[in-house]
Amino acid sequence: MAQAKRRVPPQDINVAIGLFERGDAAGAARLCRASLAANPRALPPRLVLASALLASRDIAAALDEADAVLNMDLAVSVAHFVRGTALHELRRDSEAAASLQRAVELAPGDAKSWLNFGITLTALDKLDAALPALQRACALAPRSAEAHASLGTALVQCLRLPEAVVAYRTALRLRPDFADASWDLGFALLLGGDFVSGWAALRTRKPEEEQALAARGVTGAEWNGQDDAVETLLVVASQGLGDTIQFARYLPLLAAQGHRVLLACDPRLAPLLKTLKGVAEVIVPSDPLPPHDAWVAMSSLPRLFATTRFTIPSSASYLAPDPARVERWRAAIATGSAHGPAVGLVWAGNPAHANNARRSMPQSALAPLLKVPGVRFIGLQRDAAVPPPQSVIDLSADLTDLAETAAALHALDLVITVDTAVAHLAGALGRPAWIALPYAPDWRWLLDREDSPWYRSVRLFRQPKTGDWDSVATALANGLDTLLRAVRE
């Protein structure tokens, strides 16, 4: 005989909800699971469980619970919210947007659903729809710092920078310790050319950078840019490869002030940066940190040197490759029967980069460029998702570190690249480089210019609208064809 199902006592659900609202997601989840063991089809505990799992960052389990609810009842806004939010975390944004759209249809007064819907639409570059969604979230929850900051991010993608600055500052007024909003404000200000205010906003480090510094074992006094009595100064590169290359220009300035400069950096950069003037020692993560009087994060150096657009140091070459490696690369590139200038190609960045989808060019977009006659295209694309086109000579397997890449760039006539470490490396070496940029570029490339105050040897090619790589590739092809004609004449 089938036994009657025990109803979940209302007080159990109320207790679970109370735990969840007080921030005890784990406790709420335990109570909900106990209730579901008695009645697996009970809707209230499953909804609370899905929300608790999402709050606990157990994304896959939250998605499973949301799907279980929707299999029972398709008209539950909370389940659509959890499902859409979980899918966004898994970078399945097209599916996420569909679920979150259903959530706001079912609960048009729910600010969190509008917020996450807008965030997901921004990730999909559907900005015409993202902005109204985020504005709706701000209207429903005017004291939500996250809603205002997310609106700022969408506005930056539209290059509506003054409005974005207002949105970020609103977020920081509501939550002064909101590190991400402070950094995003700083980047928006820098992109617009306001370096003084931008560096000030970047004074607050993101939690992940603080964690990286702590993991490296950095302790002791942090250099304030003023204490000349500091003899041995440890500079810690705690951000990406491109940032490290860009800000390496400040290390000779530190040495000129009388400091003995130690540099802790990524091992892929160590062989190259060992040759930088003024650097006494390069330390990689496997090395213990040597004694030092103070330390400074490399990302702080532009602010500490009060850098403006007009005072950027060493925009000419400040790095140099190993001559022997350069000769090996020249020999490798010269092999074969093909003639003509050698042009290096990098069309995609690190997949782990948060903005990689926007800054990377689809390989199919290279077609106009590869049709330019009389050019030997050399593939420098590391870890490509698909093999390079047949017309590209792929030498990427030999790029074992950035010193090797530096030598390869010196053996080329030109490099065409998206916004990756290769772009910074070419600029720091003083090698001619054409950089393909998304519509809303990284802060360091500024706006409305083809040159860069950071690197004299680069030329910038910008998307005229979001996602338009075809126009960029056509401009690159036309530019290359014009350059070749000038050389022949």
Offer a concise description of the structure.
It is built from 23 helices and 10 strands. It has helices at residues 10-21, 25-38, 43-55, 59-72, 77-89, 93-106, 111-123, 127-140, 145-157, 161-174, 179-191, 195-201, 207-215, 241-247, 251-256, 270-273, 301-304, 323-334, 356-359, 367-370, 402-411, 421-429, 469-488, and strands spanning 232-236, 260-264, 279-283, 294-297, 342-346, 376-379, 392-394, 414-418, 433-437, 458-462. The strands form 2 sheets. A 6-stranded parallel β-sheet has the order 7-6-5-8-9-10.
In words, what does this structure look like?
This protein has 489 residues and is of the alpha/beta class. It has three domains: 10-203, Serine Threonine Protein Phosphatase 5, Tetratricopeptide repeat, CATH 1.25.40; 218-304, Rossmann fold; 323-488, Rossmann fold, CATH 3.40.50.2000. 50% of the residues lie in helices and 9% in strands. It has 23 helices and ten strands. It has helices spanning 10-21, 25-38, 43-55, 59-72, 77-89, 93-106, 111-123, 127-140, 145-157, 161-174, 179-191, 195-201, 207-215, 241-247, 251-256, 270-273, 301-304, 323-334, 356-359, 367-370, 402-411, 421-429, 469-488; strands at residues 232-236, 260-264, 279-283, 294-297, 342-346, 376-379, 392-394, 414-418, 433-437, 458-462. The strands form two sheets. A six-stranded parallel beta sheet has the order 7-6-5-8-9-10. Strands 3-2-1-4 form a four-stranded parallel beta sheet. Strand 8 (414-418), helix 22 (421-429) and strand 9 form a beta-alpha-beta unit. The radius of gyration is 26 Å and the shape is globular. Mean pLDDT is 90; it is low at 1-9.
